[in-house]
Write a structure and sequence with these properties.
Layout: H1 9-33, H2 51-74, H3 84-101, H4 117-140
Helix pairs in contact: 1-2, 3-4
Amino acid sequence: MNAETPLNQYQAGRLQVTLYLVEQALDEISSYLRGQLPRGEMYITVSDLTAAQQAEMSRVIGEIKRRIAEIKNQFALDTRTDDLRRTIMGYLGSVWESLHNTRPRNLSGFGPVAPELFETLEPQLLRMIALVDSMSSTLTRR
């Protein structure tokens, strides 16, 4: 960061992280507007936007991204480099925790747990947890 900026290093850091998160969200929204809509077994994303709304959203996103670039240059903010490995590991940690917290022994806070869930749901969740662990191991191997 440039010593001539009126921001101290902590202010610049905060601004850098905020703009990074805003730009990341805008890039995800842009992919949705281009029709790259995520879907899986448990969800489907459908677009309920008109062509005019999509065009306007894209225009505004472009304007915001131009302003991000101006601020980055004006205050000599660094470009953040994200390693794919670290990004995926972050997701896997969250996924692992969610799966673990859904195991039958952890569901009692939502009411009585049917005993058969320990025979039906538990093995499925344990297998998925093991697969997530396998993915983590794959990423930590060199």
